[in-house]
Amino acid sequence: xxxxxxxxxxxxxxxxxxxxxxxxxxxxxxxxxxxxxxxxxxxxxxxxxxxxxxxxxxxxxxxxxxxxxxxxxxxxxxxxxxxxxxxxxxxxxxxxxxxxxxxxxxxxxxxxxxxxxxxxxxxxxxxxxxxxxxxxx
Length: 137
Known about the structure:
Blueprint: H1 2-25, E1 38-41, H2 42-51, H3 53-60, E2 64-76, E3 82-86, E4 94-98, E5 114-125, E6 127-135
Parallel strand pairs: 1-2, 4-6
Antiparallel strand pairs: 2-3, 2-5, 3-4, 5-6
Helix pairs in contact: 2-3
């Protein structure tokens, strides 16, 4: 009986380790192939979060959002991944961190440039945060 329990636990451990290894190494799909659920202007998106964060979070967080606006500033993360802040006409903006799993045709942006970016909305932390962004053509 004890041998069966030990054997069962060993098999369960191996299966669990295999699933864990698979999930750890699984690639996140590129945002370029994802379809946006919402299309909105950067100023309107920020205003909705500013007016009622709970309602805006329920409406946008976890969804793929295409946001249009004017580049306020552009930078790069330590690993070289581009990051763009879209102007909202207020003290804060819409922060778009690019998808590190996607090869981007364009990685440099200039302030004043108009563009549309698509990414997963992560909520607001001073700026509205979009993750895994790509430029919408």
